[in-house]
Amino acid sequence: MNLYKEARSLIKVNIREYGMYIALFVIMLTFSIMTDGLFMSSRNISNLLDATGYIAVLAVGMTLVIVIRHIDLSVGFAAGFMGAIAAIFMSQLGVPFYFTIPIILVMGVVIGMFNGFLVAQLGIPSFVASLAGMLIFRGALLRVTEKTGTINVDDDHFNAIGNGYIPSLATVGGLNLLSLIFGAVVIIFYLYSEFSKRRNKLRYNFEVISGGMFAVKLVFVSAIIAYITYIIAGYNGFSWTVIIMLLIVVIYHFLTTQTVLGRHIYAVGSNPEAAHLSGISVKKITYIVFGSMGMLSALSGILFTARLQSATTTAGTLFELDAIAAAYVGGVSAAGGVGKVTGSIIGAIVMASLSSGMNLLGVGISYQYMIRGAVLAIAVIFDVMTRKQRA
Amino acid sequence: MSKPILEMKEISKGFTGVKALSAVNFKVEQGEIHCLIGENGAGKSTLMKVLSGVYPHGTYKGDIVFEGSVQSFARISDSVKAGIAIIYQELALFPDLTVYENIFAGNEITQGAVVNWNRTIVQAKEMLRKVKLNVNPETKIKDLGVGKQQLVEIAKALSKDVKLLILDEPTAALNEDDSENLLTLLRELKQQGITCIMISHKLKEVIAIADKATVLRDGRTICTLDASKGEITESVIIKNMVGREIDDIYPKRTNRSFGENVLEIRNWRAYDAKLGRNVVKNVDLHVKKGEIVGIAGLMGSGRTELALSLFGNPKSYKLQGDLLLEGKTRSFKHTRDAIKAGIAYVTEDRKGDGLFLIQDIKNNISAANLEAVASRGIINGNEEVKVANGYKQSMNIKAPSVEQIVGNLSGGNQQKVSLGKWLFVGPKLLILDEPTRGIDVGAKFEIYTIMNKLISEGMSIIMISSELGEVLGMSDRVYVMAEGRITGELSIEDADQEKIMHFATQ
User: Fold this and answer.
1) pTM tops 0.90
2) Which domain of life does the protein's organism represent (chain A) (predicted)?
3) Distance from C-alpha of B95 to C-alpha of B103, rounded to nearest angstrom
């Protein structure tokens, strides 16, 4: 009974944070029931996650941009353009993929820093600056793909980023062994970090959640990781896209929650004047955040090009709005200073789940857009309501 | 005996978990100036929000009787229609619009669907005459000083045929001259039969102007004092506000011994390119170790600008002159350099550019010195909580935990968080800009005690303040500024209010 009470108060306090997870769970459960389990099948979940990758990495970068009270509309076509440049490098200039990828990522950083220059140095509103960038990259993408139209990429290593899976080594009862091992490693890592966090807190004599609650939490989260691993291992195992996505989330989650840099980003977002007077360089933070956004749009372009195994004239269309929607669904606040990268990833998965589920149900594309729009609106309404309640 | 224009009976109002008002009774007679007094969080603002319809009828318990009939305001416009106007501390004017547009904003003089601007201007002039404000009605609000803006607000209220005027800390942002003008105006409005409720922290004002004064404490009415019976005195008010007697607002300090110069500036000038003029002119000043140096002066005399020019120059003034910190000439490119050199600056506007209101106490306290709780760029969250807990205890910050969001704290506690943030930097020189503005008597005393403790530990303090009592009560030496210059330097033995005002108005 006490455990139940503790759980209830935990959920109540963190409702903003858990809201999204609960929403995702409800959506997945609903679709599973409506499709007789087809939605949660290994094949569908694998495809769903792979198709989310290039939006998810954009959403991570966009989270930070919105946190510091800016916006970047140029990321979609910037991704398309850099994807095309990658294709040209490999198929027309013969640059090997292991050179191409770092070059494109650096190019992304440079492009992002240029946006940062316009916004931080010249003081141009980011909406306008990035709108200009969007038009420019759209033109640039058309320019480089004009002659040939679609540029095919025949580098197998490169294409594996978007289509390939980690090797299985062996199969155990129809399950991909390396993927199972990977899942197990993630669980062990999770348990280790939770235990060491708790031990540290106890060392400082801080309050911790009760032992029972702690055990429930560990078992619950481990079970979820195990279940996801089981589903994914049942198809082709973890794809490289998913691995890259996870890596980006882990790095950015760590960066934003555990480092001085991350704290400075949120400080700038919650009150730029106070941040400046606290000795934080608002300009530097703006450069870094836009630079990271540029790098992630390059990565998004690489993922998308690899997935299609080609660069097309329309690549990147509306990516920026999908990324922005994912961030808002994931709990980022338009007023700045609030939002987590993990939330944005969940937001991206929520939006992708809606598309995937409705496709399975054969819902017409017109209704799909309306429903996704409604979900976006509801998410923001929920966000505003819970914030009012706390104030 | 006049009849009551307003009676608020047994008003109770709660927010989730907190009771803000419990059975408050509040009665205002026709044509009087009635002051509402209480510590921050006593419920004054909540009571006025109930009255003006910000909290609509039904969200509170009790009755509002205005001009003899029970009112049920569903929204602010209902109370305006009844003749109640409220002027908030943060003025609600449109800075980019003109004076006349502001006076009639939301109450436009129209012919059909079209605004009649000519008649608006004529009427605006009439209103400005009433509040004795001599400005061109076509001036933009942002080009007026705060004092004049306040008068525009009052003109706006008058244009709506107001019967009951409510002012929420009207003089908090005004200098002594403007405050005096405002009080004079209120007396004149009283002659014209306008009843006025004034919320104020400044007891001198209350004593000067109030016919009655009601004291609230912890959401309850404590008493209503009557000036005609001689009940409105400083000691009576303070006793009722805090529920205990404070014999001295300023804590005594025993030793006044100072060391070497910590800061010295010579011929210091700061040019503001945006304004196109010098905001600090040829200032010579020094601060010794263990000394509290007060900087007095009127609003706009260049005190804040001087502080910012010393603190890494965040407004990018063009600086000239010498700055010596512990005898060494220094120049700072960024605020960060000044912090590293040992200067801390607690801003005047804690909500605007001091605190991260949406973040919690611990994040605010560590914000200017994160490196101290981090190694290789990675924050030790537990160490951070420990540090924050330390300040929470030593400064008596009232909050359930250091994870409390700062925006939800009272003004006094916010100021303590702000102070804690800068103490954590470990400064040699602490610059406090209006350290007790808008906070209650109890918290003021606590801040003063902290200041005394800091200098006894060898820190030096520059205190910028518009409250002469505070300057005289706390400083060891006083500089007075006017129009960017230092016009006078007084040892505390020589200083008194008249001398300071003499220099401040030069």
Assistant:
1) no
2) Bacteria
3) 12
